[in-house]
Amino acid sequence: MNQSAVVGAGVMGKGIAYAFAISGYEVFVNDVKEEALEKAERDIESLLEKSCDKGFLTKEVYHTALENLHFETDLTKAAKNADVVVEAVLEKIDLKISIFQQLDEICKPEAILATNTSTMSPTEIGAQTSRPDKVVAMHFFNPVHKMKLIEVIRGLDTSDETVDQVRTISNQIQKEMVEVNEFPGFVTSRMNCLIGNEAMNMFMEGVASAEDIDKAMKLGLNHPMGPLELADLVGLDSRLRNMEYLHQTLGEKYRPSPILTKYVKAGRLGKKSGKGFYNYS
């Protein structure tokens, strides 16, 4: 395998493209918005340059990665020769299914189609294609260039061969893989959403400041990031969509905190909008 495609040029898409590019894959980054692709190209090139300057990448890997990256608004051109495609769009099941139906038509029969969902069903997505055995979830973590884990979720019809190939891909892009049987929220999102939601409720109730809640989790429980700063990084709109899905599928304990809903309605989406539980302006 030597060619990949990433559908969606947002935060996760950029990180996934970077990981494939520095590992020797030719990478086609696709997005329907030209301006999103232009920003992705600038951001990935900037990250490559910083990584090279700091000694994390050799000059050879840096230049090869730059040559490996292509940016394309046409999904057919981006995905037609790919060995593996990773979809990294919004957590909306209808949108994901539409993209996978297009990829099913475009991609060669042996191509693996992966979704970078943090909560949604690869079984449901794969069932809308003619190759459910080739559909899998590869849940990367933000920021992708620093986080070593890929949570791999096997759908009902995902084949052993596909999981083995994804394990090989994970090794090639220098990530550790854990295999998870499909259930809403998988492992990490179920735990992470509960912790984050409780932190939001405590902040709303005035138990402690955002800074002190996060500091308590980092210094007392050895979390590398506090739950509120992590929610800001992920995007509060993304977190709300995840919580709504888990609430719908797993029940009352996943009801989104009222302050999360309020912040999203106010346009406080976290780091990307300049304000969430913290002010970034």
TrEMBL record:
<dbReference type="InterPro" id="IPR006108">
    <property type="entry name" value="3HC_DH_C"/>
</dbReference>
<comment type="pathway">
    <text>Lipid metabolism; butanoate metabolism.</text>
</comment>
<feature type="domain" description="3-hydroxyacyl-CoA dehydrogenase NAD binding">
    <location>
        <begin position="5"/>
        <end position="182"/>
    </location>
</feature>
<keyword id="KW-0560">Oxidoreductase</keyword>
<dbReference type="Pfam" id="PF02737">
    <property type="entry name" value="3HCDH_N"/>
</dbReference>
<comment type="similarity">
    <text>Belongs to the 3-hydroxyacyl-CoA dehydrogenase family.</text>
</comment>
<dbReference type="InterPro" id="IPR036291">
    <property type="entry name" value="NAD(P)-bd_dom_sf"/>
</dbReference>
<dbReference type="InterPro" id="IPR013328">
    <property type="entry name" value="6PGD_dom2"/>
</dbReference>
<feature type="domain" description="3-hydroxyacyl-CoA dehydrogenase C-terminal">
    <location>
        <begin position="185"/>
        <end position="280"/>
    </location>
</feature>
<dbReference type="InterPro" id="IPR008927">
    <property type="entry name" value="6-PGluconate_DH-like_C_sf"/>
</dbReference>
<dbReference type="InterPro" id="IPR022694">
    <property type="entry name" value="3-OHacyl-CoA_DH"/>
</dbReference>
<dbReference type="InterPro" id="IPR006176">
    <property type="entry name" value="3-OHacyl-CoA_DH_NAD-bd"/>
</dbReference>
<dbReference type="Pfam" id="PF00725">
    <property type="entry name" value="3HCDH"/>
</dbReference>
<protein>
    <submittedName>
        <fullName>3-hydroxybutyryl-CoA dehydrogenase</fullName>
    </submittedName>
</protein>
